[in-house]
Every structure is written in C-alpha cells, then in structure tokens.
Design goal:
The complex is a heterodimer of chains A (115) and B (114). With 115 residues, chain A is mostly beta strands. Chain A contains no helices and 11 strands.
Amino acid sequence: GAGVSQSPRYKVAKRGQDVALRCDPISGHVSLFWYQQALGQGPEFLTYFQNEAQLDKSGLPSDRFFAERPEGSVSTLKIQRTQQEDSAVYLCASSSSVRGGYGYTFGSGTRLTVV
Amino acid sequence: KNQVEQSPQSLIILEGKNCTLQCNYTVSPFSNLRWYKQDTGRGPVSLTIMTFSENTKSNGRYTATLDADTKQSSLHITASQLSDSASYICVVTRASGGYNKLIFGAGTRLAVHP
C-alpha cells in the first residue's frame, strides 16, 4: 500500500484480556519496528524485524508482549493479560533500508486503553 | 546513557510569529538527527534529517540546525500557521553494526493561536 496501515485505530480492553495489534508495512519494506508511546512522551522502542527475523526484542517490557512477522510483511503485536500500564499508543514503522536507517514511515498507531 | 532532551516541553505562540525548539543529545555513536512533526492521533512525519557533516537543513518554513560538537540541534519555524500546532520530536539515530536504532526525545508540544 501507499503507507503503513495499523488496525484497529482504537482498542479498549478489560484488564486481563489479550489483544492483538496489526501492522501492514509499505510493500517491500524489509525493516519493521514497533514502538510504544505513552501520553505526552516520545515513542519508546519495542522490537525490530528484518524481513521475518526478529533481530531485537530488547524493548519489550515483559513476557506478556510478543511480536511476530511470519512472512516478512504483516506484523502482529500481541499483549497477553493486559494491565493498565499497557495503555498507550502503539506505533509501527517500516523502512526500505536493511538497517532501517533511512526512509522511515510511521503508521497512525493503535491507541490501546486498558480499563 | 543514550538520551535526547528537548525544550521547552510546551510552547504557545500567536499565528505569524516565529519560534525555535531545542534538542540536546548524548547518543553515541551518532548517525543522523531527525525532526518529526506529530499531529494529535497521527504517527510522526519526518521534517528534516541531518548527518554529522550538515549544519543546517530547510524544509519550507522549517529550518533545522545541528552542532555535532556540542551535540545540540534546533528547529526554527518561521511565520507560524495554525496547522503547525503539533508535537515536534527530535530523534537521533544511533549507529550500530546490526541496525540503526532511533532514540526519541519526549517532544515539544506547540500550540499556535489565532
């Protein structure tokens, strides 16, 4: 597609519920990143994929967070047993660069609210 | 620690006025510095990107400067418009062998009033 598409745009989850957030990167982009953005803060790195390989997951805050990109295109960020501190905007970005240095394009994000 | 600090946290200006936003960083090794504009409810959109050897770069009414020696950058907005109301985020790319990691500042929230 023309841009990075994320769905859903908004998600309200009850505490303890599992959620799955989807990212459709720009077609052909090899690098894909997930970020978490708390209210009034800049995005914080969660994880990085190069094609289907998850090369860095050091930013995932706990083992309740899991990301995958099985075919090297669409990616899913899953959060199990959601907690209130998980409430944030989750941004996905993709890049045509193998090392992700240039050509970053962000999606509009998914706003997750845990109640 | 790799950090990006921005000031001010928020700013209110009148339409037509100029303003300058500041960014200090300690990220190393440095690859490049970007300024992003983030409208409410949207993802960040790139305004400028500068490498180590570039001192200034313009994009319309936006002009970014970089002093790699003092590790400071600024974003100057000329003749502000209501549509400039947004968060402006300074982002420094840390070079690494594997991939380039973006380190984000917390942003400056700009409000342009008529």
